[in-house]
Amino acid sequence: MELRAFAERVLLSDSLELKIQRMSETLTDENPGPSVRLAEPVRPANLQFAPRRAAPSMPHPSNFSDPRKRAIAHHILANHELQALEVMAWVLLAFPDAPTEFRMGLVEVMADEQRHTRMHADQAADLGVQFGDLPVNCYIWKKAQDFQSVLDYLAGIPLTFEGRNLDHTLEFEEYFAAAGDSRSAAIMKAIHKDEIHHVAFGLKWLRILKPAAQSEWDAYVEHLHWPLRPEKSVGDIFHEAPRIAAGMSREFIERLQAPEPNEGSSTEPAGR
Ligand SMILES: [Fe+2]
Ligand SMILES: [Fe+2]
């Protein structure tokens, strides 16, 4: 199967099963086709993007002893994973001229996002809420509409959303464990480990695609579209170890820990 056909299956299927079905065939990229920028992914009726603020917000972790609250958390996180998957498919269609090695590598990341969506959806269901029972937002998808290049994608998704998730996965692992839900905690741990590879993938391609004379940090900041900014790539607690494991340079980590005022001065909510 061609990468383009795989991307179309993810973006144009109205069946969740098809969207998150793992690719079993060997993929080829012989006919990337013309650039197409899809405005909205096709989704099943119960997973349509809801109007702003209609989707439930993340329950406070102090209420995680209530299984329903944990189910809502997994429901929200399943939608984050599904949007990440859809954005990656969008990138395959929008940037057909990107290096084949990048496109093939992105498909590997997508297989992880498919698995993550399924893990959260199954866990939400086990806790009493089917994926699609609650309204879902389109925050990550909408941000991707600003991407004009692969470098914009790398700055926005792997280095900001997935970078932030290095911290969030550890935070949620702790919250679920504190609530006595070891299965939910284990899911977060597994996703955390994958996320290190996803951030590493982003860094690798930032280094390859940026101008040689430009620093990694400058390339990262230049390709962020407001409201994305460096402070959005950090969770409530900054974890250095997964960033080192992802191959981030000392300088990059230091800049992330202390963004310059004009790079991260707003107090606007993170919009997770
Ligand atoms: Fe994921
Ligand atoms: Fe990821």
What's the short story on this structure?
56% of the residues lie in helices and 0% in strands.
Your description of this structure?
Helices cover 56% and strands 0% of the residues. By secondary structure, it is mainly alpha-helical. The chain has a single domain, classed as Ferritin, CATH 1.20.1260. α4 packs antiparallel against α7 (182-209). It starts with a helix and ends in a 15-residue tail after the last helix. The model is unreliable at 263-272 (pLDDT under 50). The chain binds fe (ii) ion (2 copies). One fe (ii) ion is lined by residues 81, 84, 112-113, 116, 191.
Keywords:
mainly alpha, Ferritin, binds fe (ii) ion
Sketch the major β-sheet.
none
What is the CATH topology assignment?
Ferritin
Query: Under the CATH scheme, which architecture would be assigned?
Result: Up-down Bundle
Number of domains: 1
List the helices and strands and how they pair.
Elements: H1 3-12, H2 16-19, H3 67-94, H4 100-126, H5 139-144, H6 150-178, H7 182-209, H8 216-222, H9 240-245, H10 250-257
Helix pairs in contact: 1-3, 3-4, 4-7, 6-7, 6-8
Bound molecules: fe (ii) ion (2 copies).
One fe (ii) ion (FE2) binds next to helix 7.
